[in-house]
């Protein structure tokens, strides 16, 4: 059955702004889940889908990477182990709306170019392979075999394999990711940029240097057992909603929560747990015991100040604050760090953080008194110029108190996409270590290139400069998720061929190379049947737990292929039947892929068996499991002495962050209700502190252009409605991806090359 999609696009004149909420979830969350399910899937499919969501025999939520409770840790899954935004993610994928050949015949690319991401996504699921021929105005149907031939022809025609880039978004299963990187490396390049380059790359860089492994060191059970949870630069109420249940549980056992954020996000303040009656009808539970309303980019200063205080208190009363034994035995670099934070310029700390000194002292005292501290963070830390040293500064404070490798304590970068961590484990990275590449070579007897590939930003530069000519994307929405929209779109359009393996229509299909392909694929929710029967795939959550996911719904169309089938068949077409990798066997039975994962990927021995245990298994993590830091250059956990760094904003300008509304998944816009912030029926808004508006002489509700200032030139994003909002002074916020046009391609984080999406110097100008 084909349901009708909304024909209306966003009408920003209907935008309504009300008061921000001071609590998250509760009954409205449940009602929205049901309503979106009903609209997209109908009643029966909604029940069938939600019943198996995040259950052992069902599919893993295609939303975020938050983990499920594990029996091995003494925890149990509930009947409804999902949140409002998980339900929306499922509704978006399991929708009954369809985008078939008739759709493409009636809508030209010129027309589609004028549509918003919301409208494109709302049209429904892609149903068959489509091609845009050179000079064409419309996509037309193409057979799968012809599509694979076309891609193979273009790839073979390149002067070097390095002229192609192969992007991945973090929804791809472990099996598809493993096959994909094997295909790309067999073809001869390490050009494997991924969404992680724009996401937690800074966390990976910082943690690899400090603890020796780029992943977080805590489990869900640790969160429940900690006595202090510091949540920095993260909005869990929207982006990891079930984390609120975990915080609530920790609090019920006496834990305290500190939130550090320029915005008083509803989900950090109070939580009404929809899984119990009290949460549905009562007042809910308060979450943050302390809310530090920090300035954008002030976190490095904040944690240096905390380190300074801890050291000062230790000096005043030796043996009371530091975990000296741990520092002596397991770490290096303490002296240089201690010296760096010994004399602190408090005026600069004030300027960087905008926080009252008493509050910094109070939080430092909580950290000094806590026996089991967990630090959680997300994009509010990773997308700054000084993101990597900022995260290292958190590690410093954790190391001072020995808060790693013991129950209830640790470092917890909270991942975004549901399998972004697994994709990396499987080899999706432009600079995988030698150990992985040589294991791959030995396993398959193929030559594997060693030269590092391009990450996301470098791939855009390469396309811009004509050094890359083919773009291939497995999932994601490269055109919209990346910075510097105008430049990136030009770069994509200059390609000879762009290929998108996708479930839903998005901007990256409209911004195309001279020839373009849309290869529609099965989603996580759908049954995947191959020659050997029904398949399962595996995924890894933010806490390194690996388990199966089994799609249960009927596929959106009989013409869809799974990601594994698309990649395996393409590899077979490109590399031929004689190639040592048994590509078609992989497609026929995913166990065969897992047999090789077991031999190549560290920690995955007996993979087929262990993923099938109830709740799967947890990948090894030396700092967490044994307080060992054998992954660092010196085998120790490393303190880092960093310069004090923070963004400085010229007179009359604001520092803008780009963030997610409550009703989107990255570039997928579910709806137009940013309920917690009080914004309905529109998205082009900019949140500014009322005192800043008064100083700038801009009225609440005014229509402005956002103009960003970067060394090379200015960039303009037109027509945003000003919303007076209680954000930190000098700081503004607008939604991603509408504001991506303002981020200069060269504005990247040191070391991680992540686009700086959270501190953009802007001025407001009356709308043109
Ligand atoms: N429903 C839903 N869930 C999602 C996503 C989604 O789009 N929708 N996206 C997924 C993905 S890929 C990711 S990576 C995660 C993202 O999860 P988040 O990181 O929570 O996402 P953002 O909306 O970017 O929010 C950044 C938060 O950090 C704060 N912040 C910004 N700058 C600073 C700063 O300098 N210092 C401090 N202390 N705080 C700051 C912002 O005010 C905001 O609260 O969510 C994942 N889950
Ligand atoms: N300004 C600014 N820019 C940002 C950010 C920010 O905070 N501010 N955040 C960054 C972050 S954290 C991230 S992770 C990136 C996200 O970047 P991406 O991962 O590239 O973008 P998404 O919007 O998550 O991708 C959505 C598309 O994925 C496809 N899709 C969905 N499910 C599947 C599936 O199962 N298989 C396949 N093959 N395709 C599927 C659909 O076609 C959908 O349109 O954006 C980054 N960009
Ligand atoms: S918290 Fe994340 S993974 Fe869990 S149900 Fe919600 S969106 Fe899905
Ligand atoms: Mo992300």
Automatic annotation (TrEMBL):
Q: Which InterPro entries match?
A: Asp_de-COase-like_dom_sf, MopB_CT_YdeP, MoPterin_dinucl-bd_dom, Mopterin_OxRdtase, Mopterin_OxRdtse_a_bac, Prok_molybdopt-oxidoreductase, YdeP_MopB
State any GO CC term.
Answer: membrane
- GO MF annotation, one: molybdenum ion binding
Q: Which ranges carry the Molybdopterin dinucleotide-binding domain?
A: 654-758
Q: Which Pfam families match?
A: Molybdopterin, Molydop_binding
Cofactor section: [4Fe-4S] cluster; Mo-bis(molybdopterin guanine dinucleotide)
Molybdopterin oxidoreductase domain: which residues? Answer: 125-501
Source species, domain of life: Bacteria
Keywords of this entry: 4Fe-4S, Iron, Iron-sulfur, Metal-binding, Molybdenum, Oxidoreductase
Protein family membership: Belongs to the prokaryotic molybdopterin-containing oxidoreductase family.
Q: What is this protein called?
A: Molybdopterin oxidoreductase domain-containing protein
């Amino acid at each position: 059955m084909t349901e009708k999609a909304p024909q209306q696009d966003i009408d920003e004149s209907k935008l309504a702004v009300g008061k921000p909420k001071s609590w998250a979830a509760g009954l409205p969350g449940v009602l929205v889940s049901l309503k979106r399910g009903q609209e997209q899937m109908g009643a029966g499919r909604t029940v069938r889908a939600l019943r198996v969501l995040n259950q052992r025999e069902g599919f893993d939520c295609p939303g975020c990477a938050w983990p499920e409770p594990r029996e091995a840790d003494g925890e149990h899954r509930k009947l409804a182990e999902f949140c409002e935004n998980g339900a929306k993610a499922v509704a978006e994928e399991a929708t009954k709306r369809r985008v078939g050949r008739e759709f493409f015949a009636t809508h030209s690319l010129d027309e589609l170019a004028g549509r918003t991401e919301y409208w494109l996504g709302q049209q429904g699921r892609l149903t068959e392979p489509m091609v845009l021929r050179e000079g064409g105005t419309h996509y037309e149907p193409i057979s799968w075999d012809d599509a694979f031939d076309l891609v193979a022809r273009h790839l073979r025609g390149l002067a070097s394999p390095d002229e192609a880039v192969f992007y991945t978004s973090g929804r791809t299963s472990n099996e598809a990711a493993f096959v994909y990187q094997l295909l790309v490396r067999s073809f001869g390049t390490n050009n494997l940029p991924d969404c992680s380059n724009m996401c937690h790359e800074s966390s990976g860089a910082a943690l690899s240097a400090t603890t020796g492994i780029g992943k977080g060191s805590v489990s869900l059970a640790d969160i429940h057992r900690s006595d202090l949870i510091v949540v920095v630069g993260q909005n869990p109420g929207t982006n990891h909603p079930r984390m609120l249940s975990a915080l609530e549980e920790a609090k019920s056992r006496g834990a305290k929560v500190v939130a550090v954020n320029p915005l008083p996000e509803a989900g950090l303040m109070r939580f009404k747990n929809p899984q119990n009656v009290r949460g549905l009808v009562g007042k809910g539970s308060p979450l943050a015991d302390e809310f530090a309303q920090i300035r954008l980019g002030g976190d490095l200063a904040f944690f240096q100040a905390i380190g300074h205080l801890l050291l000062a208190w230790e000096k005043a009363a030796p043996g009371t604050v530091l975990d000296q034994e741990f520092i002596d035995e397991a770490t290096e670099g303490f002296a240089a760090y201690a010296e760096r934070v010994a004399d602190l310029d408090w005026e600069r700390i004030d300027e960087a953080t905008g926080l009252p000194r008493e509050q910094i002292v109070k939080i430092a005292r909580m950290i000094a008194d806590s026996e089991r501290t967990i630090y959680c963070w997300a994009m509010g830390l990773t997308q700054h110029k000084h993101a990597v040293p900022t995260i290292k500064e958190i590690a410093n404070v954790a190391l001072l108190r020995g808060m790693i490798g013991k129950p209830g304590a640790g470092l917890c970068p909270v991942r975004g996409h549901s399998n972004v961590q697994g994709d990396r484990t499987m080899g999706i990275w432009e600079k995988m270590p030698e150990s992985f590449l040589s294991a791959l070579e030995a396993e398959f007897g193929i030559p594997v290139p060693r030269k590092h590939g391009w990450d996301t930003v470098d791939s855009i530069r390469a396309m811009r400069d004509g050094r890359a000519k083919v773009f291939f994307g497995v999932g994601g929405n490269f055109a919209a998720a990346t910075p510097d929209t105008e430049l990136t779109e030009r770069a994509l359009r200059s390609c000879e061929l762009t290929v998108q393996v996708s479930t839903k229509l998005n901007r990256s299909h409209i911004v195309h190379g001279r020839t373009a392909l849309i290869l529609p694929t099965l989603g996580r929710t759908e049954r995947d049947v191959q020659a050997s029967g029904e398949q399962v795939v595996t995924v890894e959550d933010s806490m390194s737990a690996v388990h199966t996911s089994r799609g249960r719904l009927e596929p959106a169309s009989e013409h869809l292929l799974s990601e594994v089938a698309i990649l395996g068949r393409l590899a077979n077409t490109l590399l031929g039947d004689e190639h040592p990798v048994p590509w078609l066997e992989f497609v026929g039975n995913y166990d065969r892929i897992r047999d090789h994962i077991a031999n190549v990927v560290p920690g995955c021995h007996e993979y087929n068996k262990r993923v099938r245990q109830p709740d799967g298994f947890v990948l090894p993590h030396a700092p967490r499991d044994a307080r060992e830091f054998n992954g660092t250059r010196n085998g120790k956990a490393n303190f880092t002495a960093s310069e004090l760094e923070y963004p400085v904003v010229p007179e009359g300008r604001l520092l803008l962050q780009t963030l997610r509304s409550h009703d989107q998944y990255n570039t997928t816009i579910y709806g137009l209700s940013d309920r917690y912030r009080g914004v309905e029926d529109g998205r082009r808004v900019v949140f500014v502190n009322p005192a800043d508006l008064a100083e700038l002489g801009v009225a609440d509700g005014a229509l402005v252009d956002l103009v960003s200032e970067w060394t090379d030139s200015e960039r303009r994003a037109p027509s945003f409605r000003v919303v007076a909002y209680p954000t930190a002074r000098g700081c503004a916020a607008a939604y991603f991806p509408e504001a991506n046009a303002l981020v200069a391609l060269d504005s990247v984080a040191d070391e991680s090359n992540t686009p700086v999406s959270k501190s953009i110097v802007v001025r407001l100008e009356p709308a043109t």
